[in-house]
Amino acid sequence: MKQSICFLACVFLVANVFFYCSVGCTRHxxxxxxxxxxxxxxxxxxxxxxxxRLKLISEPTMDKFYQNIVSDMNPLNPFVYFSTTDGQPxxxxxxxxxxxxxxxxxxxxxxxxxxxxxxxxxxxxxxxISIVSKKSGFWGFRKEKTHxxxxxxxxxxxxxxxxxxxxxxxxxxxxxxxxxxxxxTRKAVLDDxxxxxxxxxxxxxxxxxxxxxxxxxxxxxFILNNxxxxxxxxxxKQSGLLENMIFDVIxxxxxxxxxxxxxxxxxxxPIGRVQIIDxxxxxxxxxxxxxxxxxxxxAIHEIMDx
Length: 306
What we know:
six-stranded antiparallel β-sheet; 26% helix
């Protein structure tokens, strides 16, 4: 009888110890403070100059479109930010197209993006914008009404793998009079004001899709160079980096070649680990904890076993 009681007491004791270790301890203030020391890192996103070779959109109107994308993204995803000056986002100019194929030169674009600490780059192209007549209304009462149609494409390029994280062809039609508040009855014309309203509607459609995709991506940074075994990292205080943070350094399992000569990197296992020793607004410095020639990596990630 005594042996049974002792056995039950031991089982009860072990069960309680296990419960408090696995559940209760995570609520202890010490653990809360430890978690607070690791803030959620912010992903810096870039915008490449959109393809507007047909000159369908004036430069001021296109600049307003870039601003709309930023202002629509900010409330949807607080852990994404853009580099801006006086409210205008930084735009990666030129060199976004390969002359021979008319396709985006991802190598040049992403090389610049990594140097600026971008995790992903938004690129778009406007192929057509025009006034069209289209029937609308309820069945039996449909009438020809004036619409504005816009066609194009938008992509998110990943600076780690060089692949497309997201792609969307655009073929949208908006009833002209509803572009304005209050609705207008004047003759439809493709002036800057009309195009600006169309692009604002388009931004409200594509930005939530981009935001959802970016939320699924882990934070990524990049090693820019190695000087005396001190690595320069492309992210700093604006991304949430602090001294003593530790990151896994990710190597590549190889590359895949695209039909236009593009190279896509296949993420592999960690090849090393670095610790941050100095941080400024846009960059930071790190020392290796283990691993060699880490400047040949494709990215750094938050450690998974922290």
